Amino acid sequence: MSKTNNKICEIHAYFQLIFTLKYMFKSPLILFSLLIISVYMNAQNTKMLLDYNYYNIPNEKPYVEINLKVDGTSLAYAFNAEDSSYQAKLQITYLIEKDSSIIAFEKFQLNSPLFKKGDIKEDLLDIKRLSVPKGSYKLTLLTKDLNNGYSTESTHDLRPISFNQNAIELSNIQIADSILVAKENDDPFVKNGLEILPNLNHFYGALNQNLAFYFEVYTNKELNLTDSLFLVEYSIVKKGEDKVIANIKSFKKIDASPITPIAQSFKIDNLPSGEYDVLVNVKNRKNEILAEERTSFQRSNPTLINYSSVDAEGTFVDSITDKTLLANYIRSLYPISSDAEKQFAENQLKYSDINFMRQYFLNFWMSRNAQYPEEEWLRYKEEVLKVDEMFGYGSIPGYQTERGRVYLQYGPPDAKQNVPYEYNTYPYSIWLYNQIDGQSNRKFLFYSPSMEMSGYQVLHSNVRGEVYNPNWEYMLISKTNSGIDNTREVLDGQIINDRARDLWENPR
User: Do 447 and 477 contact (CB within 8 A), yes or no?
Assistant: First the structure.
């Protein structure tokens, strides 16, 4: 009983087109498929978003819940001289028809809040619930701006309603901007104690880091069920498919009940731009799917790429069949990865899907060298092996050490001075780079507070974005003595090493 993906409508085509193109240019991989319905009348356009969902009341008629959002700036406002306020007034009519017969009807007036000149014109949000029997219907939306007389009309085909009282069923999935515990149960946007602010265009931009959704499970205790315990699984999948994306999934165990309302949310900060479905399955103990529902949404996240669109079959990564080896290869990329790439890679490594790992790995090198990605990887792999030979220890690979990270990120230093043994200091090493990202005379000072050659950390650097520690001389002091006197002075009872300062200021 899947809901059509074309139920979202935009009454003003130009308004939606500009909105869509804005994010298409930010994210060229995303393909928007919102149904755009154009209505132009009298050179004035009322801009609206409409969305609907079906729900059921056991042993009664199902109902359709219609959510409407009206752009406040598209309405005419009448002036009230008594209090110098302005107000918009919109007449709205819903007609649900079947074979030219009216099945349900609702006519009402929607008024804007009163506001003063210069105030922001707020959008108008409304919800209506209309009982309808089983079947297929046509929904007609009529609007009339009562302040200027401009009218609009749009028609929408409602998919068949077929709730079966003798089976386990799901309502439609309503995705939302927020779902909160209701403070007042008489609010029209409250269902089962939850205040649900709907997302009518099914779009989540870069600033939206959470996706909330609500649905209902219908089970009849009078059914001849061998088991009254069910598992409800929900996940984010690629549109029209069943493969879980970015390990975004969860589940809930429920008992048979006439109505079980479920509200959940997913963090989508690591979800790349693309078109997706929220997928819900109800399963029994045998893992058999008893009911399924999905609804689509669009995600724009310019900081992440939709790696699933990359086909790795037949490429050099296709030959990497060892999942552990591939995971290590991906981790070796961290020194040259952006923060977003590292976050996304970590999430995929937790998910441990080798096909998706291949897609990520291939896309990483194609973004660096689209023509010769394999050659680019092999050159980097040679450096990874060098780093492992120089700085790896025990089970810790070289790329996971601080010196290995700096070497891979910035290249080999132009000069370095290793000081493994010296009076009153921990072992340390100073690296000099003549140029780093347009910066001249850049340096790193590594030290090993564990006194082990394997434990070097960055203590101080003058490279932008790296550790800057003006107290590095004090932290470099060791409580052990080598017997070699290279001291300058005593400060606060501690001996400061003169040679370390000289090597930092004049590396060679």
Answer: no
Residue labelled with tokens 């043994």: 421
90-106 pLDDT tens trace: 999 999 999 889 999 99
DSSP calls for 313-335: TTSGGGG---HHHHHHHHHTTGG
Given a contact cutoff of 8 angstroms between Cβ atoms, the answer to whether 294 and 278 are in contact is yes
pLDDT digits (tens, 9 = 90+) for 76-86: 999 988 889 99
Containing structural domain, residue 212: 164-302
pLDDT of residue 493: 47
CATH number at residue 65: 2.60.40.2550
Contact at 8 Å (CB) between 203 and 297?
Answer: yes
Same domain, 70 and 174: no
Tell me the per-residue pLDDT of 467-478, one tens digit each, with 9 for 90 and over: 888 888 888 886
Contacts of 101 (CB under 8 A, 6+ apart): none
Rounded Cα–Cα distance for residues 173 and 394 (Å): 51
In a 10 Å sphere around its CB, with 0-12 CB exposed, 13-18 middle and 19+ buried, how is residue 421 labelled? exposed
Report the pLDDT value the prediction gives residue 303, as an integer from 0 to 100. Answer: 64
